Amino acid sequence: MLKTIEYVDGVVRMIDQTKLPLESVFVDCRTIEEVGSAIKTMVIRGAPAIGVAAAMGVSLGAAAIEAETFDDFFSQLEAQCAELGQSRPTAVNLAWGIERMTRVAQENKSLPLAELKTLLRDESIKICAEDIEINKAMGRHGQALIEKGQTVLTHCNAGALATAGYGTALGVIRAAMEAGKNIKVMANETRPFLQGARLTVWELKEDNIPVTLITDNMSGFFMKKKAIDCVVVGADRIAANGDVANKIGTYMVATMAEKHKIPFYVAAPISTLDMSLSSGDLIPIEERSSEEVTSVQNQRIAPEGTNAAHPAFDVTPNDMITAIITEKGVARPPFAESLKRLAEQK
Amino acid sequence: MLKTIEYVDGVVRMIDQTKLPLESVFVDCRTIEEVGSAIKTMVIRGAPAIGVAAAMGVSLGAAAIEAETFDDFFSQLEAQCAELGQSRPTAVNLAWGIERMTRVAQENKSLPLAELKTLLRDESIKICAEDIEINKAMGRHGQALIEKGQTVLTHCNAGALATAGYGTALGVIRAAMEAGKNIKVMANETRPFLQGARLTVWELKEDNIPVTLITDNMSGFFMKKKAIDCVVVGADRIAANGDVANKIGTYMVATMAEKHKIPFYVAAPISTLDMSLSSGDLIPIEERSSEEVTSVQNQRIAPEGTNAAHPAFDVTPNDMITAIITEKGVARPPFAESLKRLAEQK
Question: Which residues of A132-167 are buried (b: 16+ CB within 10 A; e: fewer)?
Fold first, then answer.
């Protein structure tokens, strides 16, 4: 499996997810600005992967700062972080990655700056490694919810490519396969960016997990035919009450699951929780370019001058969610209590 | 506005709907087989347009038959019709168009064959003209259901291009505009064939009706935001109990409308009713090529060898439908009674 992101000789290397699966091209980021741009253009995407990229971006930023004192260093770092933090608004992991790095800087302000820069680089590499461990723990907890031979629907790509590796929703699916459950996957193609068709199908094929691609408007048909047993998706931000922001279309999948009484699971690390927001109504929803809707892989599909809307995420209310799978365990309703308990657990 | 289909000098001319809106190319059919192939490959699509094409196809078939007696003529015609009837399974208008033509042939069996062939040609041209009148009547009845300034969501293309002209669902929208209601339209792109992005947007822009294109997974987001006031779609076949087969994804739109208590209207001519089927479960659902899912406009979007499913239609149960708009009036639940009444009405 190709690595989503890694630190190589002072360079942050990412597989270009806008080009997969037709081309496997790597993008090397040498500055924090280049990392911000890679996040914005979706060279790298997926909430946990954005968190890792942000941390590595901060370490690149730190390395390039010329300063004599910690205060000077830190104020320059904060300015860079503020800009990086604007690259995408919905995934809270971006802010989480930045915050963890700046906290480590502050906690080690007495170190010589050269040493602090090394420490920050190592911290970002540690965040990357931790992410894989977190996903494996999530997989262990989540796979218990899936039964032998079931067909699991997923939306977007919450896989190895959306994380440092293994994946959140696809981590649960991988763990179920590793537990010998012989499950099958249905993957929504996930317009406009086609993360399902391009990334999820590619990942699962690489791992020999049986997958059938469908368009986003077909899941209702297959649920009505009882061909889908449960849904597992990732998350970009989870409010304190359990409302989940995730890729546009997730809310419709949840509504179909509710109508057909099919369990709807969300798999996300604790870093995706935003306990500062009481409800999903407060989560900022990114509006992306309408050209991503009027074209597919740079080929226009609609008349010239077409007006299109492109909200990149939606919010699924907590009362439509069966359980939220985290690395610390599985939260069940009422989520306001269960998520708080997990978040505070050491 | 370009004509969807017309009879020109012994040729059935269609605008190639696989190429719109990037190219305006016409396809000339000279035989019944060429018409069948145009239907199968979706050069022409949309239930009422398929009905018109079928009738014109039968007249081309009739013109080419060499026979001395009516019985010989008619058995050859029936063989041709049987094959044409296989071109697409879901839209009942195909069978309806063929049946009307063979009935006219039988009712005029005493005519000299040359005259009968002319009569059949004229009948198919009449069916085409009638379709436009039917759509205008449907528009008059349907527009009364839409209020000033509302935003109407539609799925697929149930427009001029899906009919001989004016459209069914888009006919209702056109009539509402003509009544000065200043409505707005949201159009689902309608993967995999993109009838919404390519055809509905194009038609509405030509008529200066404000339209915003969205991907199929966005309508839930906009309904939750109260940005959609009602839904109007077409139909490919309606069972006696009011269950509606329509383009894949319609069932999900209906489910979202149900969740948000938004009226869900179906606009279709009486010829779309199949009173021989007691419920939508009996409607045959066409399974099309998976390549239409793994590619967009002949450009591959998924890994090579991807397994994909492609049911081309789904069935929306009658209890999710607010009203069915026909040229004879608006049917309300219980549809088993109201549709029967309309079907029997002269």
Answer: bebbbbbbbbbbebbeeebbbbbbbbbbbbbbbbbb
- pLDDT at residue B346 in the model: 81
Specify the fold of A5-135.
Four Helix Bundle (Hemerythrin (Met), subunit A) (1.20.120)
Residue span(s) of chain B under CATH 3.40.50.10470 come to 139-344
pLDDT tens track for B207-265: 999 999 999 999 999 999 999 999 999 999 999 999 999 999 999 999 999 999 999 99
A243 is known as an active-site residue: no
Q: Please confirm whether the linkage preceding A334 is cis (ω < 30° from 0).
A: yes
Q: How far off is chain A from B278, nearest CA to CA, in Å?
A: 19
Contact present, B276 and A243 (Cβ < 8 Å): no
Cα dihedral A124→A125→A129→A131 (10° resolution): 20
Q: How far apart are CA A53 and CA A45, in angstroms?
A: 9
Predicted confidence at residue B1, as pLDDT, reads 66
CA atoms within 13 Å, Cβ hemisphere of B125:
13
For residue A13, give the nearest of A63, A47, A49, A66 by alpha carbon: A49
DSSP codes joined into one string, A113-132: HHHHHHHHHHHHHHHHHHHH
In this complex, the residue of B186, B197, B302 whose CB is nearest that of residue A198 is: B302
| Complex ipTM | 0.96
Token output for B273: 């009713």
Query: Nearest residue of A to residue B315 by CA position?
Result: A221
Best mutation target among B185, B204, B207, B215 (most A Cβ atoms within 10 Å) is B215
Residues 189-218 of chain B with CB under 8 A from chain A are 189-192, 194, 197-198, 201-202, 205, 210-218
**Which chain A positions have a beta carbon within 8 Å of B297's beta carbon?**
296, 299, 301
Nearest neighbour of A303 by CB, restricted to B186, B191, B201: B201
Instruction: Judge whether B236 and B90 are in contact, CB under 8 Å.
Output: yes
Strand-by-strand arrangement of the B329-331 sheet: A307-308, B211-214, B184-188, B151-154, B230-233, B264-267, B323-326, B329-331
Which residue of A190, A218, A308 is in closest CB contact with B214?
Answer: A308
> Please, where in chain B does CATH 1.20.120.420 lie?
5-135
Query: Which residues are B329's β-sheet partners?
Result: B326
Task: Report the CATH architecture of B139-344.
Answer: 3-Layer(aba) Sandwich (3.40)
